[in-house]
Amino acid sequence: MDRTLAALADPHRRQVVELLRERPRRAGELAEAAGLSPPAMSRHLRTLRASGLVEERHDGFDARVRVYRLTPAPMTELTEWLRETEEMWADQLSAFRKHMLARGDAA
């Protein structure tokens, strides 16, 4: 999950994830849509692949063409962690509120 969060910390990589939510895309399409040079996009895609957020496939007609698509596992793991964290904080805040009410310090 650390790699997922680190990869998503960059706004360009988040933009790539948003673009790939619509449909799989070629690296060149992603670079153009994000306003990045091909080498810069290549670096971002390398990071996204290393984190497991995207996978690369080769076009059946031309092995040089790389098509990128999202992979669900890292986001599923992150979503589950966020849900568990939210539950923990809700429980903590509820216990704190009960404690304060018992003391008569809060309404």
SSE layout and pairing:
Blueprint (H helix, E strand, L loop, with lengths): L1 H7 L2 H12 L2 E2 H8 L3 H14 L2 E5 L7 E5 L1 H32 L4
Helix pairs in contact: 1-4, 3-4
Q: How would you describe what is shown here?
A:
- The chain has 107 residues and is mainly alpha-helical.
- It has one domain: Winged helix-like DNA-binding domain superfamily/Winged helix DNA-binding domain (Arc Repressor Mutant, subunit A), CATH 1.10.10.10.
- Helix content is 68%, strand content 11%.
- The chain contains 5 helices and 3 strands.
- It has a 3-stranded antiparallel sheet with strand order 1-3-2.
- A hairpin with a 7-residue loop joins strand 2 and strand 3.
- The longest helix is centred in the C-terminal third of the chain and has 32 residues.
- It starts with a helix and ends with a helix.
- The mean pLDDT is 90.
Q: What is the gist of this entry?
A:
With 107 residues, the protein is mostly helical. The chain is 68% helix and 11% strand.
Parts with pLDDT < 50 across at least 5 consecutive residues:
none
Q: Could you name the CATH homologous superfamily?
A: Winged helix-like DNA-binding domain superfamily/Winged helix DNA-binding domain
Question: What is the CATH class name?
Answer: Mainly Alpha
Number of strands: 3
Structural Rg: 20 Å
What is the strand content?
5-15%
Characterize the overall form.
elongated
Amino-to-carboxy terminus distance: 39 Å
**Largest β-sheet summary:** 3 strands, antiparallel
**What class do helices, strands and sheet pairing give?**
mainly alpha
Task: Write down the secondary-structure element order.
Answer: HHEHHEEH
What's the structural domain tally? 1
The spatial strand order of the largest sheet comes to 1-3-2
